Amino acid sequence: MTDVQLLEALRAIVGERGVLADPADLENYNVDWRHVFKGQARCAVLPRTTDEVAGVIRLCASEGIAVVPHGGNTGLSGGATPDGSGRQVVLSLARMRAIRDIDVLGETMEVEAGCILQTAQEAAAAAGLMLPISLAAEGSAQIGGVLSTNAGGTNVLRHGMSRARVLGLEVVTADGEIVNGLRRLRKDNAGYDWKQWFIGTEGTLGIITAAVLQLAPQSLHRVTALLAVPDADAALKVLRVARQQIGETLNAFELMSGAALELVERHQGLKTPLAPSEWFVLMEASSCLPGLRDAVEGLLAMVLEEGDATDGVIAESERQEGELWLLRESITEAESREGRSLKHDVSVPISGIPAFLREADAAVALAFPGSRINAFGHAGDGNIHYNVVVPASSDGPALNALVHDLVVKHQGSISAEHGIGQYRVSELERCCSAAELKLARRVKAALDPAGLMNPGKVMAPAPEAQ
Ligand code: FAD
Ligand code: MLT
Ligand code: ZN
């Protein structure tokens, strides 16, 4: 099929305005959020319905054309960026953004894949509920992208990863079949839980077109506090006290290095309200019951008394809460303005965080003088963004391997929440066991035998197929 014939056939499925082929229109689809990965799409196609998605996939399958699903393009691993061949079709879900239904009694929402996360949050709030998936990219990230990456964010401690919110899923498989599993059930053990095959697999097994999400009750009382702590050991002691004192009300426990907040001040002009410190903790708790603020004040007094925190402030208003969170949520943007950075989205068992940080800091300083560590993250989940700002000439793969080897030593994961995309394919091969890779390849071969769903992402083709 020539390019002209392909565009015509796609337009017949999705309409004239649903196909973009002009180089200027494709710019946004050809490069990732960080401008690290650049490709060349043959065209971008924007279906309006699940039937249209299925039609596009069937056409591409019959022509042997690879498809790259595209959400809000905020992914940090290059998963939504096509390769440079100029042959891959980008499939954007941006025109499928309806919130189909909110069931207040059942606390569920049925939403199309292209709906922006923040729009879904706002709709849940308008119905007196909450969608507890929260990340700094929520103003652009789409539900389909969030689920395809099994995004984490700042509420995982209490509400789990995105996967935990999914009750039902509608997908289009690699051969263009629609599978409708949009059930609103909390309990459903009828056969394989196939929706899990499409969550967190970054579009390599099929297209997510809609989902039923489990919402949560809104909390009437919320308390947000920023603490200065001397080191990561002290931060974990604060976490322990918080778990003992306010337990399940703890939504978020974020660790930020002083260096990370310096970047935020330098690039975003946002000042930390506490004096400089090596480390800071941002904590948020919420509850329907009164008394939370007193409990948080009590725990603050305890950790200050013990010396595990050296200073602290509790937000007095929603505006102040927003200001504290803005510090945390601006780190990624500030880092991107600082120059070249190598991201390591790692997790280790929570108790292993301090030792991991000590060893990684020493090893990076020794092997890569001139690099600067920007460490922060979701310490309550054991997830540290161990990002390193490096000179342009630094050997990125060698630095990645050094950090990931330490992660493996500490029984951690080389991707806690950002996925593998194209950024970490070789590192996954290196760090993952052969048996796990073999199992994953068997699933890929079964669900996408022609290898047309987002090829080159998550896994390289099996050695025998290369
Ligand atoms: P995209 O970037 O468009 O795509 C991501 C992957 O999903 C790609 O592989 C793509 O092919 C696939 N995909 C997209 N839509 C579909 C679909 N409908 N069906 C099948 N596959 C699809 N992540 C976290 O986990 N926690 C954070 O705290 C966090 N903070 C962030 C902060 C900033 C400032 C930024 C820029 C990103 C952050 N992220 C974070 C990254 C996060 O992965 C994304 O924000 C989000 O999950 C991706 O959604 P998206 O719609 O932008 O997907
Ligand atoms: C965040 O938590 O802000 C992002 O996931 C981290 C990053 O940009 O590395
Ligand atoms: Zn994160």
The count of helical stretches stands at: 15
The radius of gyration computed from the alpha-carbon positions, rounded to a whole number of angstroms, is 23 Å
Oligomeric organization of the protein chains: single chain
Helix-and-strand structural type: alpha+beta
Q: Which stretches are poorly predicted, pLDDT < 50 over at least 5 residues?
A: none
CATH topology (level 3) name of the domain at 99-217: Uridine Diphospho-n-acetylenolpyruvylglucosamine Reductase, domain 3
Q: Could you tell me which ligands this complex binds, including any ions or cofactors? A: flavin-adenine dinucleotide, D-malate, zinc ion
Helix content: 25-40%
| Average residue pLDDT | 97
How far from one another are the termini?
25 Å
Q: What is the molecular shape?
A: globular
- What is the CATH top level name of the domain at 99-217? Alpha Beta
Biggest sheet layout: 8 strands, antiparallel
Number of E-state strands: 19
Strand content: 15-25%
- Tell me which CATH architecture of the domain at 99-217 applies here: 2-Layer Sandwich
Short précis:
The chain has 466 residues and is an alpha+beta fold. It has helices spanning 3-14, 23-30, 50-63, 117-126, 143-148, 156-159, 232-246, 258-268, 292-306, 318-329, 331-338, 353-367, 396-409, 425-431, 434-447, and strands spanning 19-20, 43-45, 67-70, 89-92, 99-103, 108-112, 129-130, 166-173, 178-181, 206-214, 216-217, 221-229, 250-257, 279-287, 311-314, 341-342, 345-347, 372-378, 383-389. Among the domains are: 99-217, 2-Layer Sandwich (Uridine Diphospho-n-acetylenolpyruvylglucosamine Reductase, domain 3), CATH 3.30.465; 221-332, 2-Layer Sandwich (Alpha-Beta Plaits); 339-427, 2-Layer Sandwich (Alpha-Beta Plaits).
